[in-house]
Amino acid sequence: MTAATPQKATVLSESGLAGRIENRAGKVKTTLTSRLASGIALLIAIFWTIPTIGLLITSFRPEADIKKSGWWTWLSNPSFTTENYVEVLTGGRFELSGFFVNSIVITLPAVVIPITLALLASYAFAWIDFKGRSILFVAVFALQVVPIQVALIPLNKQYVSWGLSGSFWTVWLSHTIFALPLAIFLLHNFMKEIPRELVEAARVDGAGHVKIFFVVLMPLLVPAIASFAIFQFLWVWNDLLVALTFAGGAQNVAPLTVRLAELSGTRGQAWYLLSAGAFVSMVVPVVVFLALQRFFVRGLLAGSVKG
User: Fold this and answer.
1) Nearest C-alpha neighbor of 166 from the set 102, 236, 114, 113
2) At residue 292, does pLDDT exceed 50?
3) Is the C-alpha dihedral spanning 298, 109, 239, 119 positive or negative?
4) What element of type H or E holds 243?
5) 29 C-beta neighbours (distance < 10 Å), count
6) DSSP character string of 39-99
7) Fewer C-beta neighbours within 10 Å, C or N terminus of the chain?
8) Terminus-to-terminus CA distance in the chain, angstroms?
9) Is residue 217 within 8 Å of 290, Cβ to Cβ?
């Protein structure tokens, strides 16, 4: 037996494994694209969408019709009105427009601040050698397992001692603190996928850390940044726990979710207006997701340098 025999066996084994993987992938693709799988997926999508369709129809039905019959009767006795939306946006009973602005004021900084800090931290963990880097990164990663509920009371006490209670800062800082571990972990992994030769070539050309970060890495990180930005935007926009804890007592800083929760508790009989309010709160997340979904898909499936 020669020394080339094990190498040949290894090559054959690897080619056989690759062939089995391709065959399995082909079978999976054929199964998922079959008529039966497509029919099941379509059926699930229809059942999943029915509650949303019912809520949408309810938001456009007159109050008298809603109190008299269910939304499905609209198909046999259609009636349409926009008074619910007019009352929700401009009426004295609900007046969600101010809370809508508060949600925007809360969400935008709560997305930009953690992403900015996470990018800087991720670059340091990925491309700067310093003592204790691995231990510190593991510590940051481990913070993801800490439930945010255990930090609410200590944070609230700290904000009160700093004189920040009842301001937007409490919500911005809280969302930044809770988002940073996951943001650093995800962006660090994307940065580590960038070929080291690319960074080394920039250093040979005389580029420093600032130029490498902004000129070399940032264009490659757009899909990853967009992916996390969508996650963070949807989380902050739909958040109730953090907003209720730190901004629930101040109406001038309370977001839409807090107002809708209050209305559902005190005016449950006017839930036809709540359905209109729910759709008002859904408009911005849907627009953001549709605008960034191509970056979202690239960030999830391709990675920063493969897209």
Assistant:
1) 102
2) yes
3) positive
4) helix 241-246
5) 10
6) HHHHHHHHHHHHHHHHHHHHHTS-HHHHHHS-GGGGGTS----SHHHHHHHH-TTT--HHH
7) N
8) 46
9) no
Task: Supply 127's token pair.
Answer: 């491309």
Confidence (pTM): 0.75
Instruction: Convert the pLDDT of each residue in 181-204 to its tens digit.
Output: 999 998 998 888 888 888 888 888
Per the CB < 8 A criterion, the answer to whether 156 and 225 are in contact is no
Polymer length in residues for the chain: 307
Range with lowest mean pLDDT among 64-68, 111-115, 168-172, 233-237: 64-68
Angle between helices 168-192 and 149-162 (to 10 degrees): 130
Cα–Cα distance between 161 and 202 in angstroms, integer?
Answer: 47
Lowest-pLDDT range of 73-77, 98-102, 135-139 = 73-77
* Nearest alpha carbon to residue 71 among 57, 84, 87: 57
DSSP code for 156: H
In whole angstroms, give the CA distance from residue 84 to residue 91. 9
Is residue 231 scored above 90 in pLDDT? Answer: no
Q: What angle in degrees, to the nearest 10, is found between the helix axes of 271-301 and 97-127?
A: 20
CA separation for the pair 146, 154 (Å, rounded): 14
Surface-to-core class of residue 64, CB atoms within 10 Å of its CB (0-12 exposed, 13-18 middle, 19+ buried):
exposed
